[in-house]
Design a protein that fits this description.
The chain is α/β, with parallel strands linked by helices. 34% of the residues lie in helices and 21% in strands. It folds into 2 domains: 194 residues, 3-Layer(aba) Sandwich (Rossmann fold), CATH 3.40.50.720; 273 residues, 2-Layer Sandwich (Dihydrodipicolinate Reductase, domain 2).
Length: 512
C-alpha cells in the first residue's frame, strides 16, 4: 500500500496557503553521484528542506546509485549526517523519519547491467510501496564523459521510458560541454534517450532569489524600465569574484579555466536576464525566446587582445594567511596556461542597448567573495554646480547583489550636510534579510522542486547553451595564441591588463 502519512506541516489544510501550486505530486529522484560533495552539501539538504517546508509528497522516494557497498540503512545514516550538517531549515525528527522511509541505495557501476536491473526493480518497488506513481527524475551529478554510458544503461533497462500517464526526466549539471562542438555532441547523447522537454540543465545561479528578483524588479515596477536602455545606461558590469583558490579541484579546473567554468553559463545567463525585453509571460518558452534574442545579438569586439583580459593568481596573502600560487597547487602542471581570472567586453546589438558595453569578469583568489550585476548610468547632461562642489560625485548605479549579501543597492548623489553646497555619492540598500521574515531558499531547493513539478523556466535550453559557446569559443581560440596568462597577486582584484581593458574605454571597475 502507498505510504500516505502526512508530513508534520500539511499546507492542504489551509486553502489560502501560497505554497499549494508549488507542492510536488507523486514522484521520486534517482541520484547518480550520491557520494560526491554536491550531493552531500547541496542536494540531500535541499531535499530535506523541501520536505520540511511541506513541498514534497508524503511518499517521496530517493534512490542513490553508486559503487559503495552500502545497504539502505547505511545510506540513510550517511544522508542524515549530510542533512544535519548542511540543512537550511531546523532539523525535524518526524519529518526526517517520514522522508527517510523512502530512501534506497543500489550498488553498481555506470556500465553494470545488473546494477541498472536492480535499480529498475528498486524504482518499481518505490512505486508500489511509496506511491511514487511511476514518476522519476534521474539526476546525473557525474562527469560529462560518463553521460553516454549512463544514458545507454537507462535506455536499455527501460528506466528512461515512462508508462502512459507518467513521466521520466533527466537533470544534468554544468559543464554543458567544453566548446560548441562538444556541447552539441553531449546534447545528442542525452536527447537520444530523453525528449528535449524532459531534459533539465541545472545552472544553480538561476535558482537564486536575487537573480529571479531581477525579473521582478524590472517588470513589476514602473520605476526602472523607462531608463533601462542606452539613453540612460553608460555600461553594465557583471562580476563573479571568489576569494578561494581551486582547492582539490585541479583535475577538473585545469584546462577548463574561469571563462568556461562560469562565464559561459552563469554570467552570460545573467547578461541575458539583464538585457532581455519583457516576455509576454513567465512561461518557459517566453523566457527562453527573449534570452535567446539577447544572446544571438551579442557581438564581440574586433580587437580581442584590447578588450579581453585573463590572469592566473600568484602567491599572496588572503584572509590573514599566505596562500600558494595557482602553479603551485596540487595537481597543476608547472607550465599550465589555464586562466583563473577572465574579463571580456561584449556588446548587445539591439536598439535598446546600442553603444552600451557589458563587462563580464570572473576570478579566483580575488579581494572578496561577491557576485553582482551593476547597471551604471550616464552622468547628468548638465550639472548646475561648481566643479569643486561635485568632486566626489560619480555615476549613479543600480547594483543587484546576487551573493553573499543578497539585495539591491542604489547609488546616487546627495548634498553633504553643512552650509556649503557639496554633493557626494550615497547608497540606499534593500536586503532580503531585513525586508522579509522568511529566509531565502537555497537555489537547489527551487530547482529540484521545479524538476519534480516539470516547471522549466529557470533551466537553460540547448539553444541558449549553443549561443553561449558561439560567443565564448572565438575568445578562447584567440587566447590560445597569446601565450601565458598575466599574473596577479592573490587577494587583489585581478591582473593590470583587466584595469587597462576598461581604461581604454574611459571606465574603471567597481570595487564591490
Amino acid at each position: 500500500m502507498p505510504n500516505t502519512v502526512a508530513p508534520a506541516s500539511n499546507p492542504l489544510r489551509d486553502p489560502a496557503d501560497r505554497r499549494l501550486p508549488r507542492i510536488a505530486g507523486p514522484g521520486g529522484l534517482v541520484l547518480f553521484g550520491v557520494t560526491g560533495d554536491l550531493a552531500r552539501k547541496k542536494l540531500l539538504p535541499a531535499i530535506f528542506d523541501l520536505a520540511n517546508r511541506g513541498l514534497l509528497p508524503p511518499g517521496f522516494g530517493l534512490t542513490g546509485y553508486g559503487r559503495r557497498d552500502w545497504d539502505h540503512d547505511h545510506f540513510r545514516g550517511v544522508a542524515r549526517e549530510a542533512v544535519e550538517a548542511h540543512c537550511r531549515t531546523p532539523f525535524d525528527e518526524h519529518v526526517w523519519e517520514q522522508l527517510a522511509k523512502g530512501f534506497r541505495f543500489v550498488q553498481g557501476t555506470f556500465d553494470d547491467e545488473e546494477g541498472f536491473a536492480n535499480l529498475a526493480r528498486t524504482v518499481a518497488e518505490l512505486d508500489a510501496e511509496r506511491g511514487t506513481g511511476g514518476n522519476h527524475a534521474f539526476y546525473l551529478s557525474i562527469p560529462p564523459d560518463k553521460f553516454p554510458v549512463v544514458c545507454q544503461q537507462l535506455s536499455e533497462s527501460g528506466l528512461s521510458t515512462p508508462k502512459p500517464g507518467t513521466w521520466r526526466r533527466v537533470v544534468i549539471e554544468k559543464p554543458f560541454g567544453s566548446d560548441l562542438e562538444s556541447a552539441r555532441a553531449l546534447n545528442d547523447v542525452v536527447e537520444e534517450v530523453f525528449p528535449a522537454d524532459a531534459v533539465f540543465r541545472i545552472d544553480h545561479y538561476l535558482g537564486k532569489e536575487t537573480v529571479q528578483n531581477l525579473l521582478a524588479m524590472r517588470f513589476a515596477n514602473q520605476l526602472f524600465e523607462p531608463i533601462w536602455n542606452a539613453n540612460y545606461v553608460d555600461h553594465v558590469q557583471i562580476t563573479m569574484a571568489e576569494d578561494i583558490g581551486i582547492g582539490s579541484r585541479a583535475g577538473y579546473y585545469d584546462g577548463i579555466g574561469a571563462a568556461r567554468d562560469v562565464i559561459q553559463n552563469h554570467l552570460l545567463q545573467l547578461l541575458a536576464l539583464t538585457a532581455m525585453e519583457e516576455p509576454v509571460s513567465f512561461e518557459a518558452d517566453s523566457l527562453r525566446t527573449e534570452k535567446e534574442k539577447v544572446l544571438s545579438a551579442v557581438r564581440l569586439p574586433k580587437d580581442l587582445r584590447q578588450h579581453t583580459a585573463r590572469g592566473q593568481y600568484a602567491a599572496g596573502w588572503q584572509g590573514g594567511e599566505q596562500v600558494r600560487a595557482y602553479l603551485d597547487e596540487d595537481g597543476v602542471p608547472a607550465d599550465s596556461g589555464t586562466e583563473t581570472y577572465a574579463a571580456i567586453r561584449l556588446d548587445v546589438d539591439t536598439r535598446r542597448w546600442a553603444g552600451v558595453p557589458f563587462y563580464l569578469r570572473a576570478g579566483k583568489r580575488l579581494g572578496r567573495r561577491v557576485t553582482e550585476i551593476a547597471v551604471v548610468f550616464k552622468r547628468a547632461p548638465h550639472l548646475p554646480f561648481d566643479l569643486n562642489e561635485t568632486q566626489e560625485l560619480g555615476h549613479n548605479a543600480l547594483v543587484i547583489r546576487v551573493q553573499p549579501d543578497e539585495g539591491v543597492t542604489i547609488r546616487f548623489g546627495s548634498k553633504v550636510p553643512g552650509t556649503a553646497m557639496e554633493v557626494r555619492d550615497v547608497t540606499m540598500d534593500f536586503g532580503y534579510g531585513h525586508s522579509f521574515t522568511e529566509s531565502s531558499p537555497e537555489a537547489y531547493e527551487r530547482l529540484l522542486l521545479d524538476v519534480l513539478l516539470g516547471d522549466p523556466p529557470l533551466f537553460p535550453h540547448q539553444r541558449e547553451v549553443e549561443l553561449s559557446w558561439e560567443i565564448l569559443d572565438p575568445i578562447i581560440d584567440a587566447w590560445s595564441t597569446y601565450g601565458q596568462p598575466d599574473q596577479y597577486r592573490a587577494g587583489t582584484w585581478g591582473p593590470p591588463s583587466a584595469d587597462a581593458m576598461l581604461a581604454r574605454d574611459g571606465r574603471t571597475w567597481r570595487r564591490p
